[in-house]
Design a protein that fits this description.
By secondary structure, the protein is an alpha/beta fold. It has eleven helices and eight strands. The protein has one domain: 3-Layer(aba) Sandwich (Rossmann fold). Strand 1 and strand 2 (38-43) form a beta hairpin. The radius of gyration is 20 Å and the shape is globular. The two termini are 32 Å apart. InterPro entries: AB_hydrolase_fold (IPR029058).
Length: 308
């Protein structure tokens, strides 16, 4: 953001924040570093207007800035649901909600997963999220972006725990919800393991001590999110078809997709992997719930409210 625009935004009277679409449900904005990716926010009007006014008067204290929660969508890309589902919590607990949108098809017509792995042929989704958070800091200086809470459901859960491995210093709390595949802390190449993190991420290493310092982790899945789910069987068949098709391609590397297993088993194995490396996470298997964000949301909100 250029200095003139930044100065104009900073001088905007608080009473105009709503009509400028800078509070409430903020329209999707393109990420400047990668316009393929966009994001929306929910900024509580009353709370942020007070912070904005204090900022203009030079009386804003660090504790007055609104905490930030980042909620990452799953494969269906329902970013507005990620935002809207936490509006009541944001109003009650004076925080901002950020929901990025990583579109499908970024790396080809069948690409659904590129953002989940953090690095793909054309996308560095972890860096894009950091760039988006930097933009939030510029446009909404009354929001605390130094550290944030990260939530991800399904494909977003894949993104969330992998982001935690690489950027733990930016995170305050982490919630991993029903991921279909995970990166356990094992001696396998990324994203099946963490053996080559330094090569994949340009010299960044996985700092277990920094990860442990986050200290507040929730792993959550529905008890019925298992092999009996018809969708799980369809995913197994799709994996077999994709592996067979990819083996016929001249660019095939010889590495197939990870085995498809139930989300319950996948999350339990991640929990065990973390425990073996000293990461103490709360595991919740919710009775009567399948692969459903709405079904798990009350438990997620209860976890958020523990320290609010």
């Amino acid at each position: 953001m250029d200095k003139a625009t930044n100065k104009l935004r900073a001088s905007l009277p608080a009473r105009f924040l709503e009509v400028a679409y800078l509070v409430g449900k903020v329209p999707f904005r393109a990420c400047k570093s990668d316009p393929r990716i966009s994001y929306t926010l929910y900024i509580p009007q009353r709370q942020y207007s007070a912070a904005h006014q204090a900022l203009q008067e030079g009386t804003l204290r660090p504790s007055d800035r609104l905490p930030l929660i980042v909620n990452i969508h799953g494969t269906r890309r329902e970013a507005t649901r990620c935002r809207d589902s936490l509006v009541d919590y944001a109003n009650e607990h004076d925080c901002a909600i950020l929901a990025p949108l990583f579109p499908a098809g970024v790396d080809g017509p069948l690409d659904l997963d590129s953002y989940k792995k953090l690095r793909s042929k054309t996308l560095k989704s972890d860096q894009v999220l950091l760039d988006i958070v930097d933009e939030v800091r510029e446009v909404w200086p009354g929001v605390n972006t130094d550290k944030f809470t990260l939530i991800g459901c399904s494909g977003g859960g894949q993104f969330a725990h992998r982001f935690m491995y690489i950027h733990p210093e930016r995170l305050q709390r982490v919630c991993v919800t029903a991921p279909g595949s995970t990166t356990n802390i094992v001696d396998k190449p990324w994203p099946y393991g963490t053996a080559d993190v330094e090569d994949v991420f340009g010299g960044r290493t996985m700092d277990l001590d920094r990860i442990k310092q986050i200290g507040d982790f929730l792993l959550i899945v529905g008890e019925d999110d298992n092999e009996s789910n018809p969708r799980h069987r369809e995913q197994v068949e799709l994996k077999k078809w994709l592996d067979g098709a990819m083996r016929k391609m001249p660019t095939h590397t010889g590495t197939d997709r990870a085995a498809v297993q139930s989300h319950v088993q996948t999350l339990k194995e991640l929990h065990q992997s973390w425990a073996e490396h000293g990461i103490d996470a709360l595991l919740r298997v919710v009775p009567g719930v399948g692969h459903s964000y709405e079904g798990l949301l009350p438990t997620i909100v209860a976890w958020l409210e523990r320290d609010s």
